[in-house]
Design brief:
By secondary structure, the chain is mainly alpha-helical. α1 packs across α3 and α2 runs antiparallel to α3. It starts with a helix and ends in a 16-residue tail after the last helix. It contains 6 helices and 2 strands.
Length: about 150
Amino acid sequence: MNKRERISDLVGSLDPAPSEGPSRNYYTAYFQLWNAQRYYEAHDVLEQLWLVENNAELARFYQALIQAAGAFVHLQKNFLYPSHAKHSRRLPPATRLFELALRNLEGLPNEFHALDLVRFRELLGRYRDEIVAADFRRNPWSPDTAPQL
């Protein structure tokens, strides 16, 4: 089974009513996975839409969501393994991904594809700013306070 098939199976297992069409199912699955703190899988699921999207604005939006999920992968790994040689150094890459995501969200309306981008931008900026303000020594993410979308 290849990656696309594995992701399709994952999406199918999350969506009890696949009547909205494949792209909507993948988009919905992103949020389900995000809210379950499965950021890596959320990234993979949405990447399937981003890779084939022809609309530049929508592709940029998908890319921002993928980058945001990637940033939270870094924060989660850092939280879980703070002394690990690799995972202890994940805060700077997380802030870079927050920056890229925020840049990709520039110029999009305040609500886009049923997502409140005002709140989403604030969320990404807040995490980025907290990490930078702590000089990359404190991770603001925890499983107990993880953001929900």
